[in-house]
Amino acid sequence: MVELSVLDQSTASAGAPEPQAIRDTVELARHCEGLGYKRFWVSEHHNHPTILGTAPEILMAAIAQVTSTIRIGSAGVMLPHYAPLKVAEQFRVLEALAPGRIDLGLGRAPGSDGKTAYALNPNANEDAEHFPANVRDLMAWVSGEPLLTGHPFNGLVAKPMGETSPEIWMLGTSDYGAQVAAHFGIPYCFAHFITDGRGVERAFQVYRDNYKPSERFPEPIANVCVWALAAETEEDAERLFTSRAHWKVRRELGDLRPVEAPEAIKDFQYSDAEKARIADLRQSAIFGTGERVYGQLSGLADQHGIDEVVVLTWTHDQEDRRNSYRLLAEAKAETGA
Q1: Model confidence pLDDT, tens digit, residues 270-328
Q2: Which residues contact 103 (CB under 8 A, 6 or more apart)?
Q3: Which domains occur in the chain, in start order?
Q4: Which helix (H) or strand (E) holds 4?
């Protein structure tokens, strides 16, 4: 029995105004809550022509106002850009807006190119070196626990404090994030969609073998975030998948742009190398009918000993994305899970 959650990146669609992507994310969160999804996470990227979610904490606040049960989270806050106290304050405010529903997902990667990372924080490289200590301080401020004895910021409190606190997750694609999550005794999410699954078994082994139980999480909790797409028929899923495949092969050539409609690229002239890459993507990607996709996600969960999968779906048209999540939820319901 596998739980389903959502990651949305507010992707730009060719021909649509960029602000619409943000509004679509808010509406998608409401839609997925109605379908019974466990979590709805939003990402952080900067100066990106395709991924327009730059401020997850603001987007989460908007989502909190149109939902009432689904957990809302960041996937994630790229901590080297920010002071831990400020992040703690932002998420304490979010917790006040949606008590017991906030996930604070953390990452170490820049979510941008080097120039943009420098513009966000000229000391980002140095702060990245202090990532574990910053995570430690952030955890203390978010949960209302004291900082280390002798800490220069002892006595500072992230307001507003309340009876609940955000659930902190570590996100990653390598052993490093798994090690940090294990050290602090917090849940860990592997970004399967970034590596196409490479490294996930090793990361989970590192996480579980080194896990130090915490009061809130006495046992390790892990999930994966996977790109997947469901449609009414296999043929329709194949057609919709071409938008993602086209984007990926063009990105690998340095051509970043909004997601294009399948009809707009159906006559695109690919090189032999690009055709081979698309064939590889087609073999490894998870797409098809709702029943087929849910079955593959369940198999992936069984393979890695987890009970939750976070699903990321890209389509040019928002209605196709909404439909994909509906079909997955219906397939899950039909299994009795």
Answers
A1: 999 999 999 999 999 999 999 999 999 999 999 999 999 999 999 999 999 999 999 99
A2: 39, 41, 71, 72, 73, 74, 166, 167, 168, 169
A3: 3-233+286-334 (3.20.20.30)
A4: strand 3-8
